[in-house]
Amino acid sequence: MDDKLMLMIPGPTPVPETALLALAKHPIGHRTSEFSNLIGEMTQNLKWLHQTQSDVMMLTTSGTGAVEAGIINFLSLGDRILVGCNGKFGERWAEVGDAYGLNVERITAEWGQPLDTQQFAEKLTQDTEKQIKAVVVTHSETSTGVLNDLETISRLVKEHGEALMIVDAVTSLGAVNLPMDAWGLDVVASGSQKGYMIPPGLGFVAVSPKAWEAYKTAKLPRYYLDLGKYRKSAAKNTTPFTPPVNLMVALHATLGMMQAEGLESIFSRHQRLMNATRAAIKGLNMPLFAPDTNASPAITSVAPQGIEADPIRNLMKKRFDIALAGGQDHLKNKIFRIGHLGFVSDRDVLSAIASLEVVLQELGYEGFTPGSGVAAATRVFAQS
């Protein structure tokens, strides 16, 4: 049946009808007072979402562009930085640092495992000459479903005194509690196609006063991603370059939806979806790729045994028009990933798990009792 595609991937995520209708409106001029008023409202709502009094800027770019901007605006050639690498995206930020001639030190963990905060503690404590200028960490590692202990790492960075805390919050913002000011985060980058509940195309970078001080002496090349330009424009409720007008109109709509739901309700909903999904996978006797202690409320990664991951994904798409994400790099065909962030409800998870049970039976997987996954998820929903 046409037009029944169900996205259960970590991005792009489902888009609510309110945002779809906003996208369908006739574009308005981006230099008009009407659009300027819209930017002013969104700026305040973005500060609310980030739990900050600092600047939050909107860029026409992907999440990768937002994180790159969050790195290059505050550093200079040869600066020493620590980058947490325990998945595809942590490694990407190390590669960005390499590309710009930074002195990158990787703190690594096996994919599927959280970063070891003690390794950060040792590096930062040993740096008595304060040569480390930044620490870059992916909060929710999209490639594995691991949630890193950002609060502890940020506390260690604050104790260091000199380094900036730069965060990839692409799949955590809007799904996980991320109090920028309370945790002392300096740069927080995210993308529109995740918790914001709109299509790809907008990136967001929140910047602390400490980071703006570093900006004054940073010498890495930048132009389109020069956050100083965006800051000056945002102060006048405008943009330095042509923005995706209708995406921003849609963002205005979804930020309103998020405020109506409330931060605590948003976070508890994502926690409930994660708990139900993980319970269901355990009920199907399939191994989870990330440990319970560091599981991301945005996405659940599954490492099936005795059956390959891609045939499961392919049949889910063909049979039920449900999209699941695959593994990346060395994890291709080894894991599949179930996204449950943004505009996702209890019903969506139950539909996906029920469909998964049918697919597993059709593929000859005999490691579970039919109905056990749905029953496990139902118990979680009934108790929460």
From TrEMBL:
Cofactor(s) essential for the protein: pyridoxal 5'-phosphate
BP GO terms, sorted: glycine biosynthetic process, by transamination of glyoxylate
Record-linked InterPro entries: Aminotrans_V_dom, Aminotrans_V_PyrdxlP_BS, PyrdxlP-dep_Trfase, PyrdxlP-dep_Trfase_major, PyrdxlP-dep_Trfase_small, SP_NH2Trfase/AEP_transaminase
Domain Aminotransferase class V: 28-329
Binding locations of substrate: 337
Pfam families, per the entry: Aminotran_5
Residue positions where N6-(pyridoxal phosphate)lysine is found in the record: 194
PROSITE patterns on file: AA_TRANSFER_CLASS_5 (PS00595)
GO molecular function, one term: L-serine-pyruvate transaminase activity
Keywords from the named record: Aminotransferase, Pyridoxal phosphate, Transferase
Domain of life of the source: Bacteria
PANTHER family, per database record: ALANINE--GLYOXYLATE AMINOTRANSFERASE, AMINOTRANSFERASE CLASS V
Family: Belongs to the class-V pyridoxal-phosphate-dependent aminotransferase family.
Known role: Soluble hydrogenase catalyzes both production and consumption of hydrogen from suitable artificial electron donors or acceptors. This subunit catalyzes the tritium-exchange activity.
Assembly notes: Heterodimer of a large and a small subunit.
Protein name: Tritium exchange subunit
Organism listed in the record: Aliterella atlantica CENA595
